[in-house]
Amino acid sequence: MTKIQAGTVVELEVEREADFGFFLTDGSEDVLLHNNELEEEIEIGNTVHVFLYHDKQGRISATMTIPDIQAGIYGWAEVVNVKSDLGVFANIGISKDILVSVDDLPSLKHLWPAVGDKLYISLKTDRYGRLFGKLATEDIIQEIAVQAPEKARRNKSVEGHVYRLLKVGSFMMSTEGYRCFIHETQRKEEPRLGEYVEGRVIDIKEDGSLNVSLLPFKQEKMADDSQVIYNYLVNRGGVMPYSDKSTPEDIQFHFGLSKGAFKRALGKLMKEEKVYQEEGWTYSSDRK
């Protein structure tokens, strides 16, 4: 392996100057340090500390901006662009964004990271020497994860970015560094890879990881469900052929709720005197 390799930080000697920058060398290979990538004045013969990457033409170039994310060194990088045929591009703090390949992303594109999401990555090169972002494996996450304190409170709020997707659920790294698991039953919909989510602690595991729910408390969920029912009622002119006597199948089909949740939410609306029921139908109180 040669010293000149994208994704690494190296010490190179300033060999010669050009109108657009300086050429650096390790004694056998040269790379360009463009004027735009200078952070201090340099002279021929100086030794400089630089990060190597590929420019837009695919040539190895140097920058004096040293990113926290390097080959073998992981960090959070924000997604800045999405290309359906290539993958997603992430900003590691240099002028060139780094591609996380489509081959390393979920097969379902609606679960791909969106602009603004964050990925925990390092850098890697393929057999052609091209530089890519490398998603952290579960082993890497377990190495850097912080154990949650035993006194961590259930129902305490927790937030962070999703770093792994499985059929049974999603894994999140909290802002404190806790490793969190969100079971598929504890979310309304599957979050994207890299998505920022907020939830609450429902269990503290022996290994210091957390089980987290993205579902609201029952009181909050009841308010959400009540709004769903009321919106449906209003859109039908204030009358609907459903009540607490309706079948679970009808309720699930039209509202996406269990019968128990439907009855609780409908009861809340009746208590607030927003609706009333007659002979198996529900009416808006505005119709009286």
UniProtKB/TrEMBL annotation:
Q: Which domain of life is it from?
A: Bacteria
Stretches assigned to the S1 motif domain: 5-65, 153-215
The protein's matches in Gene3D superfamilies, at most eight in alphabetical order, are given as: Nucleic acid-binding proteins, Winged helix-like DNA-binding domain superfamily/Winged helix DNA-binding domain
Q: Name one Pfam family in it.
A: WHD_CvfB
Q: Which InterPro entries does this entry report, sorted A to Z? A: CvfB_fam, CvfB_S1_2nd, CvfB_S1_3rd, CvfB_S1_st, CvfB_WH, NA-bd_OB-fold, S1_domain, WH-like_DNA-bd_sf
Q: Which GO terms describe its molecular function?
A: nucleic acid binding
Q: What family classification does the UniProt entry report for this protein?
A: Belongs to the CvfB family.
Q: Which PANTHER family match?
A: CONSERVED VIRULENCE FACTOR B
Name by which UniProt lists this protein: S1 motif domain-containing protein
**Lineage in the entry?**
Bacteria, Bacillati, Bacillota, Bacilli, Bacillales
